Amino acid sequence: xxxxxxxxxxxxxxxxxxxxxxxxxxxxxxxxxxxxxxxxxxxxxxxxxxxxxxxxxxxxxxxxxxxxxxxxxxxxxxxxxxxxxxxxxxxxxxxxxxxxxxxxxxxxxxxxxxxxxxxxxxxxxxxxxxxxxxxxxxxxxxxxxxxxxxxxxxxxxxxxxxxxxxxxxxxxxxxxxxxxxxxxxxxxxxxxxxxxxxxxxxxxxxxxxx
Length: 210
Hints:
The chain is mostly helical. It has helices at residues 5-32, 43-97, 104-125, 183-198, 202-207; strands spanning 128-129, 132-133, 145-147, 154-156, 164-168, 171-174.
C-alpha cells in the first residue's frame, strides 16, 4: 500500500493528539495531586479509590467521635468526683449535727452549710461541656436543674435519653448519664439533712444513710 502524504499527516496528527491528551492528563495529576480525575481514566481503580476515600472519611469521623466522647466523659467524671466530695462533707456534717452536746444554734449553723452544699450540688448538676449541659439528656441546651418555686425541692428540666456515639464499625457507646439518674437522691438527702438540723431531730440525723 502506498503511503500518501495525507495518511502520514493523519497519523502524525493522531499521535500528537494522543500525546497531547497524555500530557494534559499528567498536568492535571500534577496540579490536583490525583492520579484519577474521571471514572473513565480507570473504572476499577476509581472504584477502589472511592471505597478507600469513603473508608477514610468514616475512620476520620470515628476518630473525631472518640475524641468528643472522651472529652465529654472526662467532664462528666470531673463532676461526679465533686459529687463524691459533696457526699463526704454532708456525711461529716450529719455526724457532727447528731452529736448530743451541740446547741440548737450550732445545728442551725450546720444547716446553713448544708444549704450551701445543696447549691453547690445544683451547680455541679448543671455542669457544661462547651455550651452543652452534660446531665440534661437530649436537652443539652436547657439547664437541667433549679430550685423549685417554694425553695424546698429541685426541679429537673432535662429528659432520660442517652446520647450515642459511633466509635468504630458496629461499636456504639453512650457518652452521657441523664441527671435524673444521678442527682435527685443527692438533693433529697441534703434537703432531709437540712430539715433534720433545723428541727433538731438528732434521731433522724443518726438514721441517715449515705
